Amino acid sequence: MGYDIERFVGYVNEGLLCSICRDVLEDPLQAPCEHAFCTACIHGWLVHHSNCPEDRQMIDVSLLRPLYRYMKNDLNRLQLHCKNREHGCEMVCSLESIDRHERECEYSQIPCPNAGCTVQIERRNLDGHLAVCEYRSRECPNGCGYTILSAEDTQHNCVAELRTELELLRSEMICRVEEAKHEMESRLDSQRRHMVQKESILQNEIEELKSQMSRMMSDVRSLMAAERQHRQELEQAELEKREL
Predict the structure, then answer these.
(1) Which residue ranges form the domains of the chain, and what is each CATH number?
(2) Model pTM score
(3) How far apart are the C-alpha atoms of 123 and 110, rounded to whole Å?
């Protein structure tokens, strides 16, 4: 839909009106036959039709183009009233700048930013509303640090709130301690299993060393016995030699 022609000051050229809604063009597009439309209007029309609503020439979405520059300039220079005129805004500005003005207009209806509040208020009255809004929040004046809503003032109890906060902190601390405990137990179990495996490996290595040492001692005894036998044979040979 276009801009309501009743909002405009002075004469509006027929060529700047949408051929479908007959209001002043908004976000305009132009067909090859040079008829102009609001983007929303022509897209809605082409869902059910395949021709121009003015001269019935065949058109397609792909054939639509932006408005000629001179027509766009003429459109942007049109003067119109703010949409909040009925609420008291007397601003008249060009179509090119109307959106910027209306985004900042003091007479615009805006929602209260407080969570839970459904009031729509004029921007210029927002500060006054926030001062009395039953959903406004503030810090407890008694020093407990709790944020309260005005509607909860009569129900707020610093001791109860602090006790609740303390219980929450205690529960959180217990959970953290339990998590740390489980983590430490898991680490200790892992280290214990590692130490058991290491001990088993070391025990096997010790047994192997004992076995090797036993074999070495046996070899040493065998060598010592062979050496005694060899010495005896030499002594016997020496005696026989003397006798000869």
Answers:
(1) 5-104 (3.30.40.10), 109-148 (no CATH)
(2) 0.53
(3) 6
